[in-house]
Amino acid sequence: MVKIIRRCRQLFRALFAKMEPKDHAVVDRYLNEIEKLLFYRMQPAVQKHCVNVAETVSVIAGARPDLDHSLLMKAALLHDIGKSGLKISLTDRIWYVLVRKFSSGLAQKLARPGKSPLMSRLRNAFYIHLNHGKIGASMAQNAGLSEELVFFVRNHHNTNLISGSEELEILIRADELN
Ligand SMILES: [Fe+2]
Ligand SMILES: [Fe+2]
To answer: Closest ligand to 83 CA?
Structure first.
């Protein structure tokens, strides 16, 4: 129930999400020029989500000088770049969330790459949602980003790896909260 409420809140926020000057300042502070190009390919609502994740990461990791703060901030800002390959409408996102809640197996079955009208567009949105970690990792790799960043982008929904990386655990927690 808590998860569903959080999802609804996330969708509601996505409707009105807007990058503000203070958000652009966070991007300027932590990302280099190539990373910024990747960041600004995402839709504004996803950009805003990533800045929110970065702010949460900053709070969680704030008291931990042993962690690489700047790497974690980059990972938070870039973790969803795999969603920027195509424009996904809010309606498609709502459908995706609803179908996945109903049955994750059905979402897997419906997911297909490619863009054509109607059902195919929706199936493509499902494909991107389900594979954006992998898609984003290859974008990060092609852009020459560090191995660590590629790892975080690829695995930011992979809870099986949490025990092996405290940084990944923080990123996943912050993502869930936003
Ligand atoms: Fe994600
Ligand atoms: Fe995310």
So the answer is: 1
